[in-house]
Sequence to fold (348 residues):
Amino acid sequence: MHNSLTDLCFSPIQVTGTKSLPKSMNETNYSRVTEFVLLGLSSSRELQPFLFLIFSLLYLAILLGNFLIILTVTSDSRLHTPMYFLLANLSFIDVCVASFATPKMIADFLVECKTISFDACLAQIFFVHLFTGSEMVLLVSMAYDRYVAICKPLHYMTIMSRRVCVVLVLISWFVGFIHTTSQLAFTVNLPFCGPNKVDSFFCDLPLVTKLACIDTYIVSLLIVADSGFLSLSSFLLLVVSYTVILVTVRTRSSASMAKARSTLTAHITVVSLFFGPCIFIYVWPFSSYSIDKVLAVFYTIFTPILNPVIYTLRNKEVKSAMSKLKSRYLKPGQVSVVIRNVLFLETK
Fold:
């Protein structure tokens, strides 16, 4: 029995001329790919139901964990501080990062032909770079917040005012938008006239550009340079910021800096988890596709699911606020009362 699903998909090609596009872009007549075939994580039929179950549970955990942090921060007045305001925004972006491709990946586990339209493919490229670019800059903003809190504590609330926090969030989205627009500019006008199989579970830009009918070596270098510049510059800013903070923490008394160390551990862990895969993919762009798949799953699935765990595991304030939230909405017997009322209404 043939276990591969890849040979079952035949994507239509829209003929817009009498000739196929040659290596030169001087010709205007060419055949145009109207959709791409996503090869997914595995071509094995037997693994599809198992992967569907696993990633459905993981995606549900991402939604519950991150929305729980957003709800906790917004509902508890003690958490209405710059650090938690930025944390809630990070959770929102994590939901976005996990949602741009994961629902389609989960749905594709149930079908044989994993196709995506050309426009939907461009949309995935747009959103992945928008969300990941915004998250990079937001992580830098969170590092700046910790720098001010630890190195300039007396001026913290003055410097990190509500207005400044909103501006930092808006800047992160603006930089993400500029980044993704520049990435799309390299791709949107590329001619696609033949190969249409993307060896991933979403339209990963470096893989899509390789399918163009022209030599994309220069375009690929520009894409890597663009993403690499944003990744490395953000990472270097974070390294400098946390180095200064750690030196400051080390020179002060352990009693006053105990909470700061705990917070810093969470921040540095999240930064390492997020930037590790991104830097590996874009600074080492010639790695094998199988490694790229693993890393793509890591930053689209596991980083968004680990962030809520990391930030709440050693944070007493968040855990206390979550306990209050639980006692407010899930009082003893309240759930059973709601269930009884629903059943009573249904039997009427």
Remarks:
- The CA atoms of residues 183 and 226 lie 7 Å apart.
- Residues 34-315 form a domain with the Rhopdopsin 7-helix transmembrane proteins fold (CATH 1.20.1070.10).
